[in-house]
Amino acid sequence: MKISRLETFVIGDGPDIDPDQGGVEPLACLRIHTDDGLSGLAEVFRVPPGVVQATVGGVGTHFGTLLVGQEITHPERLWQHMWDALMHTNRRGWEIIILGALDVAIWDIYGQMMKRPVWELLGGIQRGPFQTPAGAPVVVTPYCTLVSDVWGGEKMFMQQVGRADKLAALGYKAFKIEPMMSSPRDVVELARRFRKALGGKPTLMVDFGYLFNDVPTAARVCRELEEFDIYFFETPFPVDSFGPYAELAGRTSIPLAAGEHGVTQWEFLDMMDRGRISVVQPYMTTCGGLTEAKRIVELARARGALVCPGNWSTQILGAASVHLAAYSPITPFIEFAPAEVFDSPLRRELQNAGFPVRDGVIEIPTRPGIGYELPVEIVKRFGM
Ligand SMILES: [Mg+2]
Protein backbone atom coordinates (compact mmCIF):
# COMPACT_ATOMS: atom_id res chain seq x y z
CA MET A 1 0.00 0.00 0.00
CA LYS A 2 1.45 3.33 -1.08
CA ILE A 3 0.68 7.00 -0.50
CA SER A 4 -0.93 8.24 -3.70
CA ARG A 5 -1.99 11.78 -2.86
CA LEU A 6 -1.99 14.52 -0.21
CA GLU A 7 -4.96 16.85 0.12
CA THR A 8 -5.57 19.99 2.16
CA PHE A 9 -8.73 21.93 3.00
CA VAL A 10 -9.61 24.79 5.33
CA ILE A 11 -12.61 25.06 7.66
CA GLY A 12 -13.60 27.74 10.16
CA ASP A 13 -16.41 29.69 11.81
CA GLY A 14 -15.42 32.73 9.77
CA PRO A 15 -12.43 34.76 8.60
CA ASP A 16 -12.13 37.11 11.62
CA ILE A 17 -12.68 34.80 14.56
CA ASP A 18 -11.02 35.41 17.93
CA PRO A 19 -10.07 31.91 19.12
CA ASP A 20 -9.79 33.20 22.71
CA GLN A 21 -13.59 33.42 22.67
CA GLY A 22 -13.99 29.79 21.63
CA GLY A 23 -14.59 30.22 17.90
CA VAL A 24 -12.65 28.22 15.32
CA GLU A 25 -10.45 30.49 13.20
CA PRO A 26 -9.59 29.27 9.69
CA LEU A 27 -8.06 25.86 10.34
CA ALA A 28 -6.08 23.85 7.80
CA CYS A 29 -6.79 20.12 7.70
CA LEU A 30 -5.04 17.47 5.68
CA ARG A 31 -5.76 14.05 4.31
CA ILE A 32 -3.34 11.42 3.09
CA HIS A 33 -4.75 9.03 0.47
CA THR A 34 -3.42 5.59 -0.45
CA ASP A 35 -3.53 3.77 -3.77
CA ASP A 36 -6.06 1.28 -2.45
CA GLY A 37 -8.57 3.80 -1.20
CA LEU A 38 -7.76 4.37 2.48
CA SER A 39 -7.30 7.86 3.84
CA GLY A 40 -5.98 9.39 7.06
CA LEU A 41 -7.10 12.73 8.55
CA ALA A 42 -5.48 15.39 10.75
CA GLU A 43 -5.86 19.08 11.49
CA VAL A 44 -2.94 21.50 11.60
CA PHE A 45 -3.61 23.85 14.51
CA ARG A 46 -1.66 27.14 14.75
CA VAL A 47 -0.12 26.97 11.29
CA PRO A 48 -1.41 29.61 8.84
CA PRO A 49 -3.54 27.73 6.27
CA GLY A 50 -1.55 29.24 3.38
CA VAL A 51 1.63 27.62 4.70
CA VAL A 52 -0.04 24.20 4.84
CA GLN A 53 -1.54 24.61 1.36
CA ALA A 54 1.83 25.61 -0.09
CA THR A 55 3.84 22.78 1.50
CA VAL A 56 1.38 19.86 1.48
CA GLY A 57 -0.39 18.93 -1.74
CA GLY A 58 0.85 17.89 -5.17
CA VAL A 59 3.88 15.71 -5.82
CA GLY A 60 6.05 18.79 -6.25
CA THR A 61 5.33 20.36 -2.84
CA HIS A 62 7.75 20.28 0.13
CA PHE A 63 6.01 17.31 1.81
CA GLY A 64 4.52 15.86 -1.38
CA THR A 65 8.04 15.15 -2.64
CA LEU A 66 8.81 13.27 0.58
CA LEU A 67 5.65 11.22 0.93
CA VAL A 68 3.90 10.53 -2.38
CA GLY A 69 4.90 7.03 -3.53
CA GLN A 70 6.06 5.93 -0.06
CA GLU A 71 4.97 2.51 1.19
CA ILE A 72 2.74 2.57 4.30
CA THR A 73 4.79 0.83 6.97
CA HIS A 74 5.12 1.49 10.69
CA PRO A 75 4.61 5.27 11.09
CA GLU A 76 7.96 5.63 12.84
CA ARG A 77 9.81 4.89 9.60
CA LEU A 78 7.91 7.59 7.70
CA TRP A 79 8.45 10.01 10.60
CA GLN A 80 12.20 9.40 10.44
CA HIS A 81 12.15 9.74 6.65
CA MET A 82 10.57 13.22 6.94
CA TRP A 83 12.75 14.27 9.91
CA ASP A 84 15.99 13.29 8.18
CA ALA A 85 14.99 15.30 5.13
CA LEU A 86 14.33 18.40 7.27
CA MET A 87 17.60 18.23 9.16
CA HIS A 88 19.13 21.13 7.25
CA THR A 89 15.98 23.30 7.31
CA ASN A 90 14.33 24.51 10.52
CA ARG A 91 13.65 21.38 12.69
CA ARG A 92 11.13 23.36 14.77
CA GLY A 93 8.08 25.57 14.27
CA TRP A 94 5.59 25.20 11.45
CA GLU A 95 7.59 22.57 9.63
CA ILE A 96 7.46 20.16 12.58
CA ILE A 97 3.80 20.94 13.33
CA ILE A 98 2.95 19.96 9.75
CA LEU A 99 5.15 16.87 10.04
CA GLY A 100 3.23 16.07 13.24
CA ALA A 101 -0.13 16.37 11.48
CA LEU A 102 1.09 14.14 8.65
CA ASP A 103 2.26 11.62 11.25
CA VAL A 104 -1.22 11.57 12.87
CA ALA A 105 -2.79 10.96 9.43
CA ILE A 106 -0.27 8.15 8.77
CA TRP A 107 -1.16 6.51 12.11
CA ASP A 108 -4.82 6.77 11.08
CA ILE A 109 -4.08 4.87 7.86
CA TYR A 110 -1.74 2.39 9.56
CA GLY A 111 -4.47 1.49 12.06
CA GLN A 112 -6.99 0.96 9.28
CA MET A 113 -4.47 -1.19 7.41
CA MET A 114 -3.79 -3.29 10.54
CA LYS A 115 -7.53 -3.26 11.41
CA ARG A 116 -6.72 -2.03 14.94
CA PRO A 117 -7.40 1.19 16.84
CA VAL A 118 -4.29 3.36 17.09
CA TRP A 119 -3.99 3.11 20.89
CA GLU A 120 -3.51 -0.63 20.53
CA LEU A 121 -0.66 -0.13 18.05
CA LEU A 122 0.95 2.50 20.30
CA GLY A 123 1.38 -0.16 22.97
CA GLY A 124 -2.05 -1.17 24.20
CA ILE A 125 -3.55 -0.14 27.52
CA GLN A 126 -0.74 -0.14 30.04
CA ARG A 127 -2.40 1.10 33.20
CA GLY A 128 -1.48 -0.95 36.23
CA PRO A 129 -3.15 -1.27 39.62
CA PHE A 130 -0.98 1.62 40.86
CA GLN A 131 -2.56 4.06 38.40
CA THR A 132 -6.14 2.82 38.23
CA PRO A 133 -8.01 1.66 41.31
CA ALA A 134 -9.03 -1.99 41.09
CA GLY A 135 -12.37 -2.38 39.35
CA ALA A 136 -12.41 1.18 37.97
CA PRO A 137 -13.34 1.35 34.28
CA VAL A 138 -10.52 2.14 31.88
CA VAL A 139 -11.65 5.35 30.18
CA VAL A 140 -10.23 8.71 29.04
CA THR A 141 -11.13 11.74 31.16
CA PRO A 142 -11.30 15.20 29.57
CA TYR A 143 -10.79 18.37 31.55
CA CYS A 144 -12.71 21.42 30.37
CA THR A 145 -10.80 24.59 29.60
CA LEU A 146 -12.83 27.64 30.57
CA VAL A 147 -12.29 31.10 29.19
CA SER A 148 -14.35 34.27 29.45
CA ASP A 149 -15.14 37.14 27.10
CA VAL A 150 -13.42 39.51 29.53
CA TRP A 151 -10.39 39.15 31.77
CA GLY A 152 -10.27 40.22 35.41
CA GLY A 153 -12.96 41.20 37.89
CA GLU A 154 -16.55 40.26 38.58
CA LYS A 155 -17.57 39.51 35.00
CA MET A 156 -14.72 37.03 34.55
CA PHE A 157 -15.58 35.27 37.84
CA MET A 158 -19.25 34.97 36.91
CA GLN A 159 -18.65 33.75 33.37
CA GLN A 160 -16.02 31.14 34.17
CA VAL A 161 -17.73 29.80 37.29
CA GLY A 162 -21.09 29.84 35.46
CA ARG A 163 -19.66 27.81 32.61
CA ALA A 164 -18.08 25.32 35.02
CA ASP A 165 -21.40 24.95 36.80
CA LYS A 166 -23.24 24.24 33.55
CA LEU A 167 -20.62 21.66 32.46
CA ALA A 168 -20.58 19.97 35.88
CA ALA A 169 -24.34 19.50 35.57
CA LEU A 170 -23.66 17.69 32.27
CA GLY A 171 -21.30 15.30 34.08
CA TYR A 172 -17.86 16.79 33.35
CA LYS A 173 -15.47 16.11 36.23
CA ALA A 174 -12.45 18.37 35.77
CA PHE A 175 -12.01 22.04 34.93
CA LYS A 176 -9.27 24.50 34.14
CA ILE A 177 -9.94 28.13 34.98
CA GLU A 178 -8.02 30.80 33.09
CA PRO A 179 -7.52 34.05 35.02
CA MET A 180 -5.40 35.48 32.23
CA MET A 181 -4.50 39.14 31.97
CA SER A 182 -5.73 39.49 35.58
CA SER A 183 -4.23 40.61 38.87
CA PRO A 184 -2.75 38.14 41.37
CA ARG A 185 -5.71 38.91 43.63
CA ASP A 186 -8.18 37.95 40.86
CA VAL A 187 -6.38 34.65 40.30
CA VAL A 188 -6.93 33.59 43.91
CA GLU A 189 -10.46 34.98 43.98
CA LEU A 190 -11.49 32.99 40.89
CA ALA A 191 -10.29 29.74 42.49
CA ARG A 192 -12.15 30.64 45.71
CA ARG A 193 -15.39 31.32 43.78
CA PHE A 194 -15.01 28.06 41.85
CA ARG A 195 -14.70 25.95 45.01
CA LYS A 196 -17.53 27.87 46.70
CA ALA A 197 -19.88 27.17 43.77
CA LEU A 198 -18.81 23.64 42.81
CA GLY A 199 -17.49 22.20 46.06
CA GLY A 200 -14.40 20.11 46.68
CA LYS A 201 -15.02 17.19 44.34
CA PRO A 202 -14.25 18.40 40.80
CA THR A 203 -10.60 18.47 39.77
CA LEU A 204 -9.40 22.06 39.38
CA MET A 205 -6.48 23.30 37.30
CA VAL A 206 -5.37 26.94 36.88
CA ASP A 207 -3.83 28.41 33.72
CA PHE A 208 -2.04 31.74 34.00
CA GLY A 209 -1.34 32.21 30.34
CA TYR A 210 2.25 33.44 31.00
CA LEU A 211 1.01 36.09 33.43
CA PHE A 212 4.06 36.53 35.66
CA ASN A 213 7.64 37.45 35.20
CA ASP A 214 8.74 37.34 38.83
CA VAL A 215 9.09 34.27 40.98
CA PRO A 216 8.14 35.85 44.35
CA THR A 217 4.69 36.96 43.14
CA ALA A 218 3.99 33.61 41.50
CA ALA A 219 5.17 31.82 44.67
CA ARG A 220 2.87 33.95 46.83
CA VAL A 221 -0.11 33.24 44.54
CA CYS A 222 0.69 29.51 44.69
CA ARG A 223 0.79 29.64 48.48
CA GLU A 224 -2.63 31.29 48.58
CA LEU A 225 -4.01 28.79 46.05
CA GLU A 226 -2.84 25.69 47.90
CA GLU A 227 -5.96 25.54 50.10
CA PHE A 228 -8.13 25.13 46.96
CA ASP A 229 -6.57 21.80 45.98
CA ILE A 230 -5.10 22.72 42.59
CA TYR A 231 -4.17 19.79 40.33
CA PHE A 232 -1.67 21.81 38.32
CA PHE A 233 -0.54 25.37 37.78
CA GLU A 234 -0.08 26.08 34.04
CA THR A 235 2.40 28.44 32.40
CA PRO A 236 3.01 31.13 35.03
CA PHE A 237 6.13 32.38 33.13
CA PRO A 238 7.13 32.98 29.50
CA VAL A 239 7.53 29.85 27.39
CA ASP A 240 11.32 29.52 27.48
CA SER A 241 11.98 30.79 31.03
CA PHE A 242 13.06 27.48 32.49
CA GLY A 243 15.06 29.11 35.31
CA PRO A 244 12.00 30.73 36.93
CA TYR A 245 9.96 27.53 36.44
CA ALA A 246 12.61 25.48 38.25
CA GLU A 247 12.84 28.01 41.06
CA LEU A 248 9.06 28.08 41.54
CA ALA A 249 8.88 24.27 41.48
CA GLY A 250 11.10 24.29 44.57
CA ARG A 251 8.77 26.69 46.37
CA THR A 252 5.30 25.18 45.88
CA SER A 253 3.60 21.83 46.30
CA ILE A 254 1.39 22.51 43.24
CA PRO A 255 2.75 20.70 40.14
CA LEU A 256 3.79 23.06 37.32
CA ALA A 257 2.44 22.44 33.80
CA ALA A 258 3.56 23.62 30.36
CA GLY A 259 4.10 22.45 26.81
CA GLU A 260 1.28 23.68 24.55
CA HIS A 261 3.89 25.17 22.19
CA GLY A 262 6.44 22.41 22.74
CA VAL A 263 7.88 21.07 19.52
CA THR A 264 9.85 17.78 19.46
CA GLN A 265 10.89 15.58 22.37
CA TRP A 266 13.96 17.79 22.86
CA GLU A 267 11.94 20.77 24.04
CA PHE A 268 10.02 18.52 26.44
CA LEU A 269 13.29 17.17 27.81
CA ASP A 270 14.38 20.74 28.59
CA MET A 271 11.02 21.54 30.17
CA MET A 272 11.30 18.60 32.54
CA ASP A 273 15.04 18.61 33.26
CA ARG A 274 15.80 22.35 33.33
CA GLY A 275 12.33 23.68 34.20
CA ARG A 276 11.30 20.93 36.66
CA ILE A 277 7.90 20.96 34.97
CA SER A 278 6.09 17.84 36.10
CA VAL A 279 2.94 17.97 33.93
CA VAL A 280 3.81 18.26 30.22
CA GLN A 281 1.09 19.18 27.74
CA PRO A 282 2.04 18.25 24.16
CA TYR A 283 -0.44 18.86 21.36
CA MET A 284 -0.62 15.65 19.34
CA THR A 285 0.26 17.51 16.14
CA THR A 286 2.41 20.42 17.39
CA CYS A 287 4.81 18.21 19.34
CA GLY A 288 5.65 16.26 16.19
CA GLY A 289 2.81 13.75 15.96
CA LEU A 290 1.75 10.64 17.84
CA THR A 291 5.16 9.11 17.13
CA GLU A 292 6.88 11.94 19.00
CA ALA A 293 4.17 12.04 21.69
CA LYS A 294 4.89 8.41 22.52
CA ARG A 295 8.57 9.29 22.98
CA ILE A 296 7.53 12.16 25.27
CA VAL A 297 5.49 9.70 27.34
CA GLU A 298 8.58 7.52 27.74
CA LEU A 299 10.74 10.51 28.76
CA ALA A 300 8.12 11.70 31.25
CA ARG A 301 7.63 8.23 32.67
CA ALA A 302 11.31 7.95 33.52
CA ARG A 303 11.21 11.34 35.25
CA GLY A 304 8.12 10.90 37.42
CA ALA A 305 6.13 13.40 35.34
CA LEU A 306 2.64 13.25 33.81
CA VAL A 307 1.58 13.83 30.21
CA CYS A 308 -1.76 15.65 29.84
CA PRO A 309 -2.17 16.38 26.09
CA GLY A 310 -3.14 19.96 25.34
CA ASN A 311 -5.89 20.80 22.87
CA TRP A 312 -7.47 24.22 22.55
CA SER A 313 -8.57 23.23 19.09
CA THR A 314 -11.27 20.93 17.79
CA GLN A 315 -12.14 17.28 18.31
CA ILE A 316 -10.38 16.28 15.08
CA LEU A 317 -7.19 16.86 17.06
CA GLY A 318 -8.93 15.68 20.24
CA ALA A 319 -9.47 12.23 18.70
CA ALA A 320 -5.68 11.78 18.49
CA SER A 321 -5.35 12.86 22.17
CA VAL A 322 -7.87 10.15 23.12
CA HIS A 323 -5.70 7.44 21.53
CA LEU A 324 -2.54 8.68 23.27
CA ALA A 325 -4.38 8.80 26.60
CA ALA A 326 -5.87 5.33 26.11
CA TYR A 327 -2.37 3.91 25.72
CA SER A 328 -0.36 6.13 28.07
CA PRO A 329 0.11 4.88 31.62
CA ILE A 330 0.75 8.45 32.84
CA THR A 331 -2.14 10.44 31.35
CA PRO A 332 -4.98 11.01 33.83
CA PHE A 333 -6.54 13.85 31.77
CA ILE A 334 -6.67 15.33 28.29
CA GLU A 335 -7.59 18.94 27.56
CA PHE A 336 -11.02 19.54 26.01
CA ALA A 337 -12.61 22.80 24.82
CA PRO A 338 -16.28 21.94 25.34
CA ALA A 339 -18.61 23.17 22.62
CA GLU A 340 -21.45 23.38 25.15
CA VAL A 341 -20.21 26.71 26.50
CA PHE A 342 -18.77 28.42 23.44
CA ASP A 343 -20.56 30.23 20.68
CA SER A 344 -19.08 28.27 17.78
CA PRO A 345 -21.27 26.28 15.39
CA LEU A 346 -18.23 24.52 13.88
CA ARG A 347 -16.80 23.50 17.27
CA ARG A 348 -20.19 21.99 18.12
CA GLU A 349 -20.48 20.04 14.85
CA LEU A 350 -16.94 18.69 15.13
CA GLN A 351 -17.53 17.63 18.74
CA ASN A 352 -20.79 15.89 17.82
CA ALA A 353 -18.94 13.95 15.11
CA GLY A 354 -16.25 12.84 17.59
CA PHE A 355 -16.07 10.41 20.50
CA PRO A 356 -18.98 11.12 22.85
CA VAL A 357 -18.41 12.30 26.42
CA ARG A 358 -20.81 10.46 28.71
CA ASP A 359 -20.93 11.14 32.43
CA GLY A 360 -17.70 13.09 32.03
CA VAL A 361 -15.64 10.33 30.40
CA ILE A 362 -14.79 9.02 26.91
CA GLU A 363 -14.92 5.29 26.22
CA ILE A 364 -11.85 3.66 24.70
CA PRO A 365 -12.40 3.84 20.91
CA THR A 366 -12.79 0.58 19.01
CA ARG A 367 -12.79 1.57 15.32
CA PRO A 368 -9.63 0.86 13.30
CA GLY A 369 -7.25 3.82 12.95
CA ILE A 370 -8.07 7.05 14.75
CA GLY A 371 -11.73 6.49 13.94
CA TYR A 372 -12.79 10.13 13.54
CA GLU A 373 -15.16 10.42 10.59
CA LEU A 374 -15.48 13.99 9.38
CA PRO A 375 -18.91 14.44 7.79
CA VAL A 376 -18.73 15.81 4.23
CA GLU A 377 -21.49 18.36 5.02
CA ILE A 378 -19.26 19.98 7.66
CA VAL A 379 -16.49 20.56 5.13
CA LYS A 380 -19.01 21.97 2.63
CA ARG A 381 -20.77 24.20 5.12
CA PHE A 382 -17.69 25.54 6.92
CA GLY A 383 -15.21 25.36 4.05
CA MET A 384 -13.19 28.54 3.56
MG1 LIG B 1 -2.80 27.33 28.36
Q: What is the H/E string? A: EEEHHHHHEHEHEHEHEHEHEHEHEEH
The share of residues in extended strands comes to 5-15%
Please give the CATH architecture of the largest domain.
Answer: Alpha-Beta Barrel
Number of domains: 2
Total DSSP E strands:
13
**Main pleated-sheet profile:** 8 strands, parallel
The dominant shape is globular
Structural class: alpha/beta
- Count of helical segments? 14
The amount of helix comes to 40-55%
User: Spans with pLDDT under 50 lasting ≥5 residues?
Assistant: none
What would CATH call the homologous superfamily of the largest domain?
Enolase-like C-terminal domain
Quote the average pLDDT. Answer: 96
Strand order of the largest sheet: 10-9-8-7-6-5-4-11
Kindly report the CATH topology of the largest domain: TIM Barrel
Can you describe what's shown?
The chain has helices spanning 49-55, 62-67, 75-85, 93-114, 118-122, 153-169, 184-198, 215-225, 242-249, 264-273, 289-302, 315-327, 345-352, 376-382, and strands at 3-11, 27-34, 39-44, 142-145, 174-177, 203-207, 230-234, 256-258, 279-280, 306-307, 334-336, 357-358, 361-362. By secondary structure, the chain is an alpha/beta fold. It folds into 2 domains: 3-121, Enolase-like, N-terminal domain (Enolase-like, domain 1, 2-Layer Sandwich); 130-370, TIM Barrel (Alpha-Beta Barrel), CATH 3.20.20.120. The protein has an 8-stranded parallel β-sheet. Strands 1-2-3 form a 3-stranded antiparallel β-sheet, with helices on both faces. Strands 12-13 form a two-stranded antiparallel ribbon. The longest helix has 22 residues, at 93-114. The two termini are 32 Å apart. 48% of the residues are buried. The structure holds magnesium ion. The site of magnesium ion has 5 residues, from loops.
